[in-house]
């Protein structure tokens, strides 16, 4: 999980490992994003559903952060 401050919000990018058989397919990661306000344990503002399937944990987290920043830009 990665987080950052953005325009007064805390935005989060999440990577959820997807099932794999360990032999035939490498791990894949589902991306999601979350927006909170008010510091650690702050109020949940919005959460995405699954944003897509990515080959790396970092790419999934970055997609979640990008979604969260775009949501803030559109709603603030």
TrEMBL record:
<protein>
    <submittedName>
        <fullName>Uncharacterized protein</fullName>
    </submittedName>
</protein>
């Amino acid at each position: 999980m990665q987080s950052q401050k953005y325009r007064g919000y805390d935005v989060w990018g999440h990577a959820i490992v997807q099932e794999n058989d360990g032999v035939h397919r490498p791990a894949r990661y589902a991306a999601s994003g979350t927006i909170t306000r008010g510091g650690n344990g702050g109020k949940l503002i919005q959460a995405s559903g699954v944003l897509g399937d990515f080959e790396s944990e970092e790419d999934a987290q970055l997609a979640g952060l990008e979604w969260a920043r775009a949501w803030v830009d559109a709603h603030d």
